[in-house]
Amino acid sequence: MKRVVYTSPYVPGPLIAAHGLEPCYVTVEGGLDRDGNGPMEGVCTYAHSFIQEVLSDDACSAIVLTTTCDQMRRAADWIQSMDGPHVFLMNVPRLEASPQTIGLYREELKRLGRFLEGLGGRPPSDRKLAQALQMPPKQDIQVTIAPKQNKIPLALVGGPLPTQDRELFALVESCGGQIVLDATETGLLGQCHGDVPETSDPRDKLVQRYFVQRWDVGRRPVGDLYRWLDAHFKTAAVRGVLFRWNLWCDLWHGELACFKQHIALPVLGIEATGNMAADRSRLLTRIGAFIEMVT
Amino acid sequence: MTEHPEQITVKQWDRRFTELNAGGMTWPPYCDSFARHIRQGDTRLRSLVYDNAPAAFRLWQFLLSEEQRLHQAQANGALIVGTMKDLGTIPVMAYALENTVAFYPDGAWWIPCVMEMSAGLLAVADSLGVDESFCPVRAMLGAFVTEAHFPRPDLLICSTGAVCDDFSAIARRLPDMGFPVFWWEIPHRRHADPGEQQVTLPGARSAPVCQVEQVKTELDRVRRALEEASTQRLDKPRLCQGIQQANQVRAQLTHLRELVYGATPSPLGALEMLIAEMLAIHFCSDLPESLKVLTDLVDLARCRVRAGVGITDAHSARVFWVNPVADLRVMNLLEQCGGRLSGTDFLFTHALDPIRQDMDPLEALARTALADPMVGSAYDRAERIARDMRHWNAEAMIVSRIPGASHCATEGRILCEHIQKELGLPCLEIEVPPISDGMSSSLQTRLEALIEVVKERR
Fold it and tell me: Which of A74, A100, A253 sits opposite B378 (nearest CB)?
């Protein structure tokens, strides 16, 4: 079965599955030493890792990228320059959900469908698509974690978290804290928020789940993202927030100051270079100091 | 035109200005000595060299007086529209209205250079968490905070979608700072899929009809926002008139570019051409005057071409320049190293191409907006650059990276590879910060090396 790789929460995996292809949601492993060159100036470390990993994946038949950030938008050019697999660049509207932007997203789903047919996929019936929508969500990442005794509960917010960087959870625990809420783009922020209304047309459900009910720092205006996050922080009873961005990710980096203005909790900003081994000591020091402050 | 063209310093120009005044030359009211601007903080002017022609002086004074003119326009009751990111389309609509001035707050990115950091705009941006990992357009954020440069716009319009991340992150801060923004979306321009109807855009690009329709819908929203802010109708006849006015400016600029980039020696200098091209995007806040300034420059260039004289010598390396420089001084440096401009892509080629006048005006504007080189693939941009390089017989390309700009991270390599493959010409990628003095030796070495390569290949 042809594998279609993607990493954006706006890409509807069930649509790919319903076409008879294998949807492969990827959270990058991370680390930029595959080609021995380390980070590239100006290139988001997550996007860089993603490109390296998909280009070395022989089983990857196609990649679906989205225009949700300039880094991923231009990754399409980069992959083309390396004679990589087929790329579909999905135009995801940046303006808030409205009848017009919903219409645009629907049209992009149709266009994606045609691309999948070009790969050998078969256009699905409504029933098949509805069945695919019953599939469990793409991630098996635990978004909320039961708090441990004597650990300061914290939330983690930010861009997508490479697998290698999940070591952050252990680092935090070693400093006396615990991440009890993963609100990164690979965690809570990557999930559909709220219940998707039942509808006879499974495509409406796709639009709701994969476009309308999404929070995103790249949306304009940003909307009620912070009120929504705040509610989750209260539910999880967190006492501080680790705000993490991948190096050269301007959208998340630029959001840090706004976040601090809107959220009435102590916030620690962490920049991830894509090399956890190099970041480890620095992170331990800063997180340790932060937890002392929160305690 | 009687003087031999040469580049002179700011002191020499001020003496000349006094002499010309004494000789009875008349100037537009915004013209004054460079010394006045330097006293007001534009100290970088001391480090530049300028074309000695009165037409060039008028160009500079037009540029340097913009802030003052904007404040005056506001004091006179004009509607001030701040348009951001699209670089060339929205002002065409705004200038179709009466008593309305549109400008790009993005232009504040040059303030750190021109004022040699004394305005503190980058420091303000730093304090807001927007540090040097972002593009120098972060100075715009500082300018909004200090309100010490352009007047507070009555309406702010900003594009989102296929825009660079740093600009998006910076503009997003404005509503929280008390500057409401009207957002409109420009999609990533793509080629039509098989079976999709496509249209040709200015600059020989193409896009599917559905994308043009999408942008047209968005521009109609912008139109209604302008109507509401101005309490004027912005109907089709008015838009057509706006397009016609804009096309007059674009036609003069095209004429100027053909004269300058196609002639040997170059009749105008690189720095003046950069400023002149910038007039295309919002007419330096005065459309009729921008036309007069450009007409003067065209007349100057034409005279010099006829006389076979110019600012550079006949052997200068013909260089195609990609992206505007954060430090204006580097344009002088190119010439000092033995190069000259033979074509440019300063990020807004879509503001130079004529807007169609044989169709619905919003459709024409949508096609223009979609032709933005930054909205599509870097390969599309490279193709146009290659065409233009052939047209002007350029011998090399320089890609000037803007520090921190998200598009510069990967685009340069793609552009250089394409030009090397298609044209077999040497390419150089450099990075130019707002003040390049600390790296001027390194820049000079690299420019000189490229120019040596060009000359050896002849």
Answer: A74
Indicate the pTM of the whole model: 0.96
Q: Which residue has the tokens 């002639």?
A: B263
User: B451 with B337: CB under 8 angstroms?
Assistant: yes
pLDDT tens-digit profile of A169-215? 999 999 999 999 999 999 999 888 877 778 889 999 999 999 999 88
Residue B96 backbone dihedrals phi, psi, to 5 degrees: -75, -15
Q: What are the pLDDT digits (tens) for A231-248?
A: 999 999 999 999 999 999
Compute and round to an integer the Cα radius of gyration of chain A: 19
Q: How much is the ipTM here?
A: 0.94
Longest alpha-carbon distance in chain A: 57
Exposed/middle/buried for B198, CB within 10 Å: 0-12, 13-18, 19+?
A: middle
Per-residue pLDDT tens digits for B352-408: 999 999 999 999 999 999 999 999 999 999 999 999 999 999 999 999 999 999 889
d(CA B410, CA B366): 27
C-beta separation of B150 from A55 below 8 A: no
Q: Which residues of A touch B190 (CB under 8 A)?
A: 89, 91
Q: Which residues of B touch A111 (CB under 8 A)?
A: 193
Residue A178 phi/psi, 5-degree rounding, is: -155, 130
Task: Indicate the residue of B168, B175, B193 with minimum beta-carbon distance to A218.
Answer: B168
Pair type for strands B396-401 and B317-322 = parallel
